[in-house]
Here is the input.
Amino acid sequence: MPKALAKILSQEDLSRLIEMAWEDRTPFEAIEATFGLSESQVIQLMRRELKRTSFELWRERVSGRVTKHVALRSKLVQRAYCPTQYKSK
Here is the structure.
């Protein structure tokens, strides 16, 4: 991911993107739809923004996780997140 793109994201958006990447049930496709970043760009961003050990834990956690990829999910799941997931301001 170009560093210029990271500068375009506000601190709030960057925080939300990282939060979405950590969430088990938020697929990479939802992140791409929201922020326009592909899975590989999210990985690059996480590598740059997280401490090394945190990044390694995250990669281990999401690698092969069925819920992080829409194509691997059950067809019964129709949404990317729980309706109560987002915090109100």
Notes: The two ends are 30 Å apart (CA to CA). DSSP finds five helices and no strands in the chain. The mean pLDDT is 79.
